[in-house]
Amino acid sequence: MSPRNLVWVLCIGGIIVGCQVAEGLLSKKQGTTYQAEGIRINKTFGLMTPEQFVENIKSSLNFDDEYLLESIMSDHLLALGGVDFRTVKQRSHIPSGQSQLTIHRLAWEIAQKVVETDVILEGKKEPPRAFTEVTIAVDRPYLPDDIRLPPEIQFSIKQGDRRYHAQLNELYWRLLSRPPSDAEVENMTKLFIQTLASENSAVASWKAVLFVLLASMEYWNI
Amino acid sequence: MNDGTKKPYHPSRRQLLQTFAATSALGTLHRGPWGALIRAASMAGAGAGTMGGLDIGTQSAQAAEERGPVPRLVLIFLDGGWNNYFAIDPVYGKRLTNGAFESVFASHTLRAPPSKPNLLTGIGFQDALPAFDSIPTVFVNGLNVEIAAHDAAANYLLTGRSAIGRTLTEPAVTAVIATKRGGLASHLVLGGSVPLGETIQIAAPLMTTGNALGGLLTPPGSQFKEETRQALEEALSAHNQVFFSSLGDKAIASLQAFVDSQKDVSNAFKNFANKLNLDDEMKTRYDVASNGNMGDFAAAWLALKHDLTTIVSIRFGGFDTHTNELNSQLPLQRQVALALNAFVADLRATPDPRDPQNSLADTTTIVLTSEFTRTAKFNDTAGTDHQNSASAIIMGRGVRDNRLIGGTSETGEVMGWDGEKPVTKTEETMIDGSTLVATLLDQFGLGEVANQVSSRRIRGIF
Prior knowledge:
heterodimer; A: mainly alpha; 8 helices
């Protein structure tokens, strides 16, 4: 082989290998966790301000309960590190026990309101606000026991399972700006199934899932 | 009220130096080398006067260990300015005839507790006479108020410091004492907020405006079955762990306070859940039907009974009665008096959880005050306006009994106090919000902090 041909072969080979590496990385990125990638987040986090929180739930969940939004600013401003210029003029960047209680309460209230609003909209055949991928009261993950069901029902559940995963993905993107990792999908699905089993309601399961996202350390620290 | 001996709003040089020193001292508490020194001193168990600078987790742990008897404090603040002539500075003697007072005050029958003739009470607070009779009680009148504007005066009564021209807020007396104690809740604030200054970063209170406290202390998913709540808690914990395991050292360090404060939450749900709920009998006793806010008295009692906190601040609004005094101020005072009576009766009947030999009435000091009092004459709309004086009822632990401290003149103007009797008001004899706050801080073992507020005390209260 002439040196000229050798150069061509090497160039083409390099391009092929490069493409394969890129494709491999891309496929890993889509399907695996940050941990699996060995990526470490090492920035300094700070508690989201109450103003940021209010804007975030308005925009990411299309949340418009004005009464609750106002009460967040009037009743819980200081607990969330806000400033009212009367009692406190400096933001507190250190979360207190009350911050946590407030976070839990707000996360729970908002999760309930968002899910219930979309259930009502679903009933009216109107476009949902946050649960755009799923039929809230019906869809659920496919369970091992479902194999005993007739094929047509299994088919329907599997379609619901796909919508369930799409919605879970959607909630992660809306609130955390990223897809869930495999471990997170597993955790959330476990919660969904446990809640479904004990409360006999997929609506309750979605409230539980949304609460976990809204009360999570990752959501509140930016 | 300006007595003509000095210009209005004129702080003395000494007051300026005191407030400057107080501001500087508090402002630097948790910054720079002094902050480190103070934190180190606190860690080493430094004595009274040092405000604890411990992180929340350490405080909670320390508070959990320090479960011995501690003096408790309940501060009741009547927002808007109460009319003291209906309460503890009633109209009698020469006041009846000198024309300085509205004639309606003269038509009221005044009463005192049977064994405490010094505690003469107007018709607004006569429903609290059994309370005054049952535990040591002192009335404090004639506290000087330089600026009879709501926020400024309230701030002064709560903190002992003027807020004018400051860039930092100063903490209320309850917040300062709570900071020394630490834990969750170091301080329960009901009905409205109190100034917190930098104490919010050290020992944030459990605080609510309105009736949100019950909701705050109810675990998420409370309507679900126990196993669902358990699953919810586990899922949140697992979610946080996945996130936490992806963090580097710098990120972990920045989230440490968040992680620490999460420990408080499960304890709070465990300790607080359902303990502040009022049953129907309590609602009747505190007359919640007439005024829902009176439930805060009951919540305060329950919080002390269950040892959820040792310090409580309660704010009741509605006392700024510029119109229709007799149908606005008077019924409100009666509601507070009734609820105060029920509160004291409950404290007396309840053993202190940290000191069962004594009742909560033996271990709790109660302070009831307002930002200022109201004018002796009605205005054109049959209401009253702001007066440059304030007053307080102080009851319970450590309080001398059957004493009337300070006073106002026959025309209702602030007088001085020499420790025994009212005298002409001078810089030396004048008592005010700063001397009251300093006296309280001193009584709660914070003498050094008290000195930053005022070098003087009101003699005769404790």
